[in-house]
Every structure is written in C-alpha cells, then in structure tokens.
Amino acid sequence: MSESESNPIAAQTVDAASAAAAPSSRAGSATIGASERLSTRIAFFIAGLAMAAWAPLVPYAKARTGVDDGTLGLLLLALGAGSMATMPLTGAIAARYGCRRVILFASAVVCATLPLLAQLSTVPSMALALFGFGAAIGSIDVAINIQAVIVEKASGRALMSGFHGFFSVGGIAGAGLASALLWFQATPLTAAMSVAMLLALLMLFGSRGLLRYGDDGQGGSMFVLPHGIVILIGVLCFIVFLAEGAMLDWSALLLVSGRGVQPAVAGIGYAVFALAMTVGRFSGDRIVQRFGARPVLALGGACAAAGFLLAALLPWAWATLLGFALVGIGCSNIVPILFSAAGNQKAMPAGAAVSAVSTLGYAGILAGPAGIGWIAKVASLPLAFVLLGVALVVVAASARIAAGRG
C-alpha cells in the first residue's frame, strides 16, 4: 500500500498539487462547449477572410507604387517576413496571455493595416504595412490552431478538419467580397474598409468563446526549438503547404502552357482544387472519427500524389483538372491531422509545437514559388509537379509515425 493510500491527508495534498500543476487543462475541459467551438470556427473564418481579401488589392497596390513585377515580388516578401517573425513566438505569448488576447489584438492589427494597404503609395510604407499585416496574420494562424487543439482535446472527438474548412470558406468569402466591391466600382480603400468592418463585427460576435489561456496544462511557456516528432510533423506540413502553394501559383500556367487552355479561364484549375479541398475538410471530421487519423493521412497523401502525377503526365485538360481535384481532396485533411498530432505529442508543450509546425509549414508557402519556378526553368513544369507527387508519397509513408496513435 502506498503512502497516499494509507494517509488520506497526503492523498489530498497530492491531488491539490496535481490540480495546481495543470490548471489550464482542468479548467478548459470543464468549461469548453458549444460557445468555444463556435468561436473557434468564427476565428478560422476570420483568418481566411482577412488573408484572401488582400489578393484582389494587389494589382491596385502595384499601380499605386509604380513598381515592376520583380520589385512587387520582393515587396510581397514583407508579408511573409512578418508572419515568419511572429509565428515562432506566438505559442509562448498565447501560453502567457491566452488565445483570446492574442487573437483579438492581432485581429485589430489586421483591421488597421488592411485599409492602409489600399491607399499607401510608396514602397517603404507599403513594405512596413505588409510586414505588420503579415505579422498579425501569422499570430492569428498560430493562436487559432492552439485554441483548436485544446477545444478538440476537450471535446473528445475530431474537429480540426471542420475548423480548417471554415478557413477555406473564409478565403472564398474574402476574395469574393473584395472582388465584388471592386467590380461594382468601389475604390480599393472602400473595399478594404468594408472587409475590415466585417472582420471587426465577426470578432466581436465570436470573442465570447475564445480561450483566456493558451496551453493545455503541459507547461512550458517559453519559446523552444522544435525537436523530436515535432520536426517530422513540421517537415510534412512544409511539403503539404508547398503543394498547396504550387496549386495557387502554377496550376493556371500548367493549363495554359501545357494543355492549351485560354488564359481567361485558366483560373478554373485552382477553383477546382479549392472546392475539392473545402468539401474534403467539411467531411473530414466524420471520416477521421470513423477510420482514425493514420489511414486518412496515408490515403490523403497517396491521393494527392496521384493527383499531381495525373495532372503532370496526361496531356489532356480534363485529366489535369481531375488531378487538381484529387490533390484538393487528398490534401484537405492532412494539415488538420498534423496540427492535431502536434497538439497531442509529448516531446514539446502543445503551444510551442503548434508554433513550430506553423512556421515550418509557412516556410513551404514562401519557398514554393521560387523552387518550383527554378525546376520549371531548368527542366519543365510537369517535372516539378511529378516531384511534388513524390514528396507527397513521403507524407503518406510517414502516416504511422506522424499521426501517433490516431
């Protein structure tokens, strides 16, 4: 018989110490419910809406600043630099101040900088505004995934794919709203301010269920370098984000240069991919709940790999579009599963792990256009897509290790 079993007072002392060591976990499990799930969905929607609203404003920013394509590309790197600067630190900040404060503050920065991006006309001022905008987007991205990990754990069922599905819908809504306002002759500043006001209203409505803490009781609020299984999860996220970035930047060019599709309608390639991904994410939670994370991750990687190979190797436009759809379906649930795995692993605190995985994944988005462009120049764009397919086979083969016990 142990000392705690023979001494009730000692047992009570041990229980009290355990409760004090993990207040976030105990309190979170007790209070997380429908309000927290709703706020998480709204936060993901806001993140997608804010990011996508910038895309229709880019041509206007180029015209105002008077830069060429090369300078514009360098200018846009400021957005990525801002995100990369804050992503590694957000886990520690959220652990100290809570997801709610981080998301609300970063959302306020987005609402303040988006109108600036629609009216500034000098390169230095645009670069500074883009850096701030990217920093806020990066912080939101990490904080909402930390919240999602905690809410999913407390709920005891798969939720991450659905959360990311709202990000996809937010992206469609953001690009669509800004484009529609510009189509109806609104000025870029009016369009940006309209989106910012919508973001503010959504944030006020959805703030009630944002968590006032930012860890799951594992402790460790300081920034730490990724190690253990987190490195593998981050590398797999890098590959998937690289693939998603390739679809955004190069799918239309493949249709035009290799399949004879007219440039005016070549955007259908990315639309097919995005629609397939959105559908896949909203059905993903039920699939993961029924079959488990491992097989979904393995089959998703294989499906996406097959899609890239189909798009690259068959010379018909319909086959390329079918390949893009397979990439969307295959990739749809990989990142949500990997973020859940980052939150469930034991090598690092969950918040720090999510920060690390987000940073490594986002690096794939930044590296993708240049890397694929280099391969396309040296060899061919179809070869670049084949190599992406091979990389996604690696993702599928890593499912047993990366998904843990899921």
What does this structure look like?
This protein is mostly helical and 406 residues long. It has two domains: 32-206, MFS general substrate transporter like domains (Growth Hormone, Chain: A), CATH 1.20.1250; 229-402, MFS general substrate transporter like domains (Growth Hormone, Chain: A), CATH 1.20.1250.20. Helix content is 82%, strand content 0%. It contains 18 helices and no strands. α3 packs across α8, α11 (229-259) packs parallel to α16 and α15 (334-344) runs antiparallel to α16 (350-378). The radius of gyration is 22 Å and the shape is globular. The relative contact order is 0.14.
Counting copies of identical and different chains, the oligomeric state is: single chain
CA-based gyration radius:
22 Å
* Main pleated sheet: none
Class computed from helices, strands and strand pairing: mainly alpha
Residue stretches low in confidence (pLDDT < 50, at least 5 long) are 1-30
Q: Give the CATH superfamily of the largest domain.
A: MFS general substrate transporter like domains
End-to-end distance: 35 Å
The count of DSSP E runs of length 2 or more, i.e. the number of strands, is: 0
The count of domains is 2
Number of helices: 18
Order of helices and strands: HHHHHHHHHHHHHHHHHH
Choose one word for the global shape. globular
Into which percent range does the helicity of residues fall? Answer: over 70%
Mean pLDDT: 86
CATH topology (level 3) name of the largest domain? Growth Hormone, Chain: A
CATH class of the largest domain: Mainly Alpha
Strand content: under 5%
CATH architecture of the largest domain: Up-down Bundle
